[in-house]
Specification:
The chain is mostly helical and 305 residues long. The protein has two domains: 5-121, no CATH class; 162-302, Transferase(Phosphotransferase) domain 1 (Transferase(Phosphotransferase), domain 1, Orthogonal Bundle), CATH 1.10.510. It is 44% helix and 5% strand. A three-stranded antiparallel beta sheet has the order 1-3-4. A two-stranded antiparallel ribbon has the order 2-5. Strand 3 (220-223) and strand 4 (226-229) form a beta hairpin. The longest helix is centred in the middle third of the chain and has 27 residues, at 181-207.
Length: 305
């Protein structure tokens, strides 16, 4: 939620040695600090970023480890997927390889970085007094006073970075251009994992007696390295007495619909499996650098609709 862009701009022209010294000033050798403010954490994040540290996105974890003299554990903790939003953690949540005393020290020291912005990042309500530093910038006021115009503002993060269609298109473009090899390999690994995630998601829906009825890459979002199903506008929940079978016209996307939908015949949960198979074809093709547009061209040349 917090933004350290203004701080970053002020530090851009400072020499690395001075950046290191400025970072060290936050960690006195004696009279260990007991708390850090959001602006201080923002500046530490900026310093870490300019110094090329992988901890720039998790400054609170960096601070806690440096406070307890266990900075050598940083990479191990980040490799386990730990991020600032995980805080506070219990001893058992830390990697098993951490010695008991390091776990205890970490749990005790983390209180120093549990600012209000952590609550915001974890979706909890916060109240900031007038003179208290805020982890956000005020752009304009929604309203004030008893008689002035008032508005309701909702702070929301994007649900996802992109949909699966955009993900596949970007992957194919990067593979074709042979750029950012490390990033391409990471995306390929993620895409391979999506097969199991999507199959499990559809299985979960059907186990709970729900048909999606409009599965396609545009209705699959990429969020936090995993996939999320969306757009349940055509979905159907079927009870024990009704069953999952329906018939008649539908607004589902023809390209991913089973033959019985095109024929307006009876269909059931197997329709979702057909649609998922169509999505899997495009995902498998993307792993070979074949885009959705390429598949369309092949279908058109072969006479397949």
């Amino acid at each position: 939620m917090s933004s350290h862009k203004p701080v970053m701009a002020q530090l851009m022209n400072i020499a690395p040695a001075e950046l290191e010294a400025r970072l060290s000033s936050f960690f006195p050798s004696a009279d260990q600090r007991t708390a850090y403010t959001d602006p201080e954490i923002d500046e530490i994040a900026s310093l870490l970023g300019l110094l090329g540290s992988c901890a720039a996105r998790s400054p609170r974890i960096f601070i806690v480890l440096r406070m307890i003299g266990s900075l050598n554990r940083l990479h191990e903790l980040l490799e386990h997927g730990f991020e600032d939003v995980w805080l506070p953690v219990e001893r058992h949540s830390l990697p098993p390889s951490f010695p008991p005393h390091v776990r205890s020290d970490f749990v005790k020291a983390q209180a120093a970085v549990l600012t209000k912005s952590i609550n915001l990042e974890n979706g909890r309500h916060c109240h900031f007094s007038v003179d208290e530093p805020r982890p956000f910038e005020i752009q304009r006021r929604l309203g004030s006073g008893a008689y002035s115009q008032s508005f309701l503002g909702i702070l929301m993060s994007p649900v996802a970075e992109m949909d699966l269609k955009s993900f596949l298109e970007r992957l194919c473009a990067n593979m074709k251009a042979s750029i950012a090899l490390d990033g391409v390999q990471q995306e390929i690994s993620s895409l391979r994992a999506f097969f199991g995630c999507l199959a499990a998601s559809i299985s979960f829906l059907h186990d709970n007696r729900i048909r999606h009825k409009d599965l396609k890459p545009q209705n699959i979002l990429i969020a936090g390295g995993t996939v999320v199903l969306t757009d349940f506008g055509l979905s159907r929940h079927f009870t024990d007495g009704q069953g999952s079978t329906t018939s008649g016209p539908t607004s589902a996307t023809p390209r991913y619909s089973p033959p019985e939908v095109a024929a307006q015949e009876s269909r059931n949960t197997s329709g979702d499996i057909w649609s998922l198979g169509c999505v899997f074809v495009e995902m498998g093709a993307a792993l070979q650098g074949v885009s959705i547009d390429n598949i369309k061209e092949i279908f058109e040349s072969e006479g397949t609709k």
